[in-house]
Amino acid sequence: MSNLDRQAALSVCGGRGFVVAEPVRELLTPRRVQLGESTEVRRLLPNLGRRMVGAWAFVDHYGPDDIAEEPGMQVPPHPHMGLQTVSWLHDGEVLHRDSLGSLQTVRPRELGLMTSGRAISHSEESPKPHARLLHGAQLWVALPDAHRNVEAHFQHHTDLPTVTAPGLTATVILGALDGTESPGTAYTPIVGADLALTRGAEARLPLDPDFEYAVLSMFGEAEVDGVPVLSGSMLYLGCGRTELPLRADSDAALMLLGGEPFEEEIVMWWNFVGRTQDEITQAREEWMNGDRFGTVRGYDGARLPAPALPPVPLKPRGRVR
């Protein structure tokens, strides 16, 4: 998925200087962003208060939207570098096309994982015809320097492992949770999991104290470590936790995001993750000139032009604003 903000900000994030080393309860408020022709998303990362959680560098939550009479998601071909995109749906379908020739419909509770490496381009759209509801999350994972030029590839996994407890089913999307590992390729110590809670459930989820964590609420009424987390909001939890208390007042779904704090500082602008402003500038030029990122075939429409770079020089600001 693309960052379609036409005023995309250039920022530096990562590094361990702003990682919260102890458990905290920091509620992050989303920013509403228009995505494509008809989809509005709630952007949780990067946020005014925090830019990364482990290697997770971008989180959008959308829906549930009634798109029965609408085109649904329509994101034209656009480029990526230096990151992985993670597509996760609760309702609806998304048709993925990319410059490698991949053509794949991603459905609820299936993992669509695209690793950009040095360069890839893709589009995302609701199929025709499509389901009435569209609800999901789109996330980016920053690639560490040792792997950011890896060969681009796309993975689709329909059978993901789970961790269960009374009233709780945790589907492991990426990385590992409680010794259970996703088949998706990860390049840093990381976890992404979908937590399904039944009404009245009380559970304690085992965590790695060396990871930092956040929890995104997808729907329902749930408390995370005693804090009510409403749908479309995210609670940052810091590090130093060995378990996470969860309680559900209704059927609810959460996403657990975590990982070893990302040691490198990264420059993230529009749909690119690099290490310097010069890298970002070069990537923009090569996308606009038709070089490097390949061609997405089969999408009915023009590719997405890059916004203008900001006129001010890059100022490092770390993981938090």
From TrEMBL:
<dbReference type="InterPro" id="IPR003829">
    <property type="entry name" value="Pirin_N_dom"/>
</dbReference>
<dbReference type="InterPro" id="IPR008778">
    <property type="entry name" value="Pirin_C_dom"/>
</dbReference>
<dbReference type="InterPro" id="IPR012093">
    <property type="entry name" value="Pirin"/>
</dbReference>
<dbReference type="Pfam" id="PF02678">
    <property type="entry name" value="Pirin"/>
</dbReference>
<feature type="domain" description="Pirin N-terminal">
    <location>
        <begin position="41"/>
        <end position="141"/>
    </location>
</feature>
<dbReference type="InterPro" id="IPR014710">
    <property type="entry name" value="RmlC-like_jellyroll"/>
</dbReference>
<comment type="similarity">
    <text>Belongs to the pirin family.</text>
</comment>
<feature type="domain" description="Pirin C-terminal">
    <location>
        <begin position="193"/>
        <end position="293"/>
    </location>
</feature>
<dbReference type="Pfam" id="PF05726">
    <property type="entry name" value="Pirin_C"/>
</dbReference>
<protein>
    <submittedName>
        <fullName>Redox-sensitive bicupin YhaK (Pirin superfamily)</fullName>
    </submittedName>
</protein>
<dbReference type="InterPro" id="IPR011051">
    <property type="entry name" value="RmlC_Cupin_sf"/>
</dbReference>
